[in-house]
Amino acid sequence: MSERRVALFDPGAGDAEAAAVERVIRSNWLAQGPATTAFEAAFAARLGVPAAVAVSSGTAALHLALLIHGIGPGDEVITPSLTFVACPAMIAACGATPVFADIAGDSDLCLSPADVERRLTPRTRAVVAMHYGGHAAAIDELLRLCERRGILLVEDAAHAPFVAGPSGSGMLGTIGAAGCFSLHVTKNVAAGEGGVLVVADPERREAARRLRSHGISRTAPERLRSGEIDYDVADLGYNYRPTELASAVAMAQLEREPAGRQVRRQAVAGYRERLGRIDGLEIPFAGRAGDSCHHLFVVLLPAGLPRREIVTRLRAAGIEVGFHYPPAHLLTHFRQRAASPPGVLPRTEAVAPRLLSLPMHARLLPADVAAVCDALEAAIAAARGRRG
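Given the sequence above, the corresponding structure tokens read:
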């Protein structure tokens, strides 16, 4: 086993986060309060929108985005299968049916607008477009399709905070009716757990604020400030509130996200230059113009090589790797619930066995990138040698 270790992700928490947490602890207000309000304002300002709603997770943001737009039993919601399970799970949690659509292709792992259109039915109420790895889906085309058909467009921007959309259409997460962001420990702005919801319609935004706290008409800070101790509950709500600790950590992360993005860009350039020489290895999004926050760096291994063997060799060399993601339509629950047998999404199913996520974070050094490339090149050569 190599003594060198290159982590798949690294939130980079340090003195700024520790100081932010200490301030919250000394304030003696640990639940949703002023730190959360300040973080919401800062996040919204970075996105260029009037307001944002901080919640307990990106999953909670997805759930609320669907609920406030009336998604429920009998509805169908189109989603990529090449996504984290949270998205189809929240569609199902609303009582709706997830309908899985294919990716655009090997070079673009985002949702295919043409395949989305092919799967529309009279029951389709919404499309959830995921910006895979921090790269924009074909959001303008999807928006036109949804507007033409009178259906909702929700953006899963968990991977894509503060990324400019194509054609000057605003930042990702602000183009559709709602945008959902994640603050999970693996994300570019990491709070351990947490999420943010951005909603275009002010009334639905306020509905989301109520629903994140049990549907209660006045929050605890509002009741303390006003002196009014009573409240009403007009809607069935949830406990999706963030903590002050998470909001404080997220604020510290938010402030240094631009510097971290520069490190990621340099790492991506190094990966692309070196790995582009390996015969049969494909790098999705490599030839694409436009902005990205480079949340993930994924490659498609040469066809026919055993991924498990390559992963084992990489781990022995001290390189952590991941898999984003197992196709959701092939997971047991959704295979049964959504009646999506193998073969229905040929492009997704073709890339899934070849996908490999390499280390990508704001602490990557050029030497780390070189070590990853050396190890991957050696692992592929060894796997080819065994096959030949």
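The radius of gyration is 21 Å. Try to locate this feature in the token string yourself.
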